[in-house]
């Protein structure tokens, strides 16, 4: 279907459901879970398919959490994402798929290691600018733009994290998609699969509602890091060997 065999489509749907459910609980996870699976199965769909899904999902989460967003912090981070997006578009047009897959895997592993070690960065204009710029590059080139900002905000209240990242993901994914569209890096297949998989995205969002009250955040975080780390290692090994 749309150039993807049924087994691969099932793998993408499962990864999307898990990633969207986890993002609804902890604030990120969609790209971390989905991007490595896309890279392992249909690498030509990166970063476009994941970015389209990353654009829509936060719109759903913001129906629950938008009031808690850190608006001043977002202004600094999004301002720095614009030049980062330009660098990311340049990398997509320059690098072959294999190197992009290695970049995806490395980005995920770096995020996992930094998060697992609880690296603490103070929430300042400088860290927000740095996180926004790096996120613009990685979000556009690999569809994984959340970890830099999430690391900066990780010690804030859960509602603040979810809502701030939600607003940032919407604006950031839109910037990246515009940049990729202008450079001619978008495909019809990505749009078709995005439309096909959107119902799975909605199911993951709905599943995250009860999970937010029933699951321990530390346990969810541990499972998320384990899944992401394993996927990233497999993606890097496949790309290299």
Can you walk through the features of this model?
There is one protein chain. The chain has 241 residues and is an all-alpha fold. The protein has one domain (6-240). The chain is 82% helix and 0% strand. The chain has 10 helices and no strands. The protein is globular and about 40 Å long. The model has no long low-confidence stretch (mean pLDDT 84).
Number of extended strands: 0
General form: globular
Derived from helix and strand composition plus strand pairing, the structural class reads: mainly alpha
**Helix content range of the residues, please?**
over 70%
SSE layout and pairings?
Blueprint: H1 6-26, H2 30-41, H3 48-65, H4 71-94, H5 97-116, H6 125-142, H7 146-153, H8 158-182, H9 188-214, H10 217-240
Helix pairs in contact: 1-2, 1-9, 1-10, 2-3, 2-5, 2-10, 3-8, 3-9, 4-6, 4-8, 5-10, 6-7, 6-8, 7-8
